[in-house]
Design brief:
seven-stranded mixed β-sheet; Glutaredoxin; single chain; alpha+beta; 6 helices
Length: 161
Amino acid sequence: MTISVGDTLPAATFKEKTTDGPADVASSDIFAGKRVVLFAVPGAFTPTCSLNHLPGYLENYDAIRSRGIDELVVVAVNDVHVMGAWATASGGINKIRFLSDWNAEFTKAIGMDIDLSKGGMGVRSKRYSMVVEDGVVKSVNLEENPGQATVSAAAAILEQI
């Protein structure tokens, strides 16, 4: 079942690259008592993710934060080192948290997994965005085509917050 507006996000543990190395991050540390924009991509460094989806959030970072968003988070089913390299290469460090859902546990728990094996990627995340307040989903924007980033783009989020 896919997560819906009004649902509470499940407990999960992500990995995040820090200056001290990989660190576990509990979902409660990310969402409890905060207003968060979460967006997910099928893969770090993939064309749509790197050239369209992520740049929109970087370009609109200040506008999003000015509307009462405490944190911006991107999740992908990639290992923590790939997510750390993507954060560095994109210039997103200290703006967006790049979280690894390395085994797709969170992604599967919210019903956002997709099998992209035919494209050589294996199980990944669907492309989506959401606004989360204190762990409760306030809006969900799911792309029908993982190669597009329109309904889950930063511009769409700005209209919802």
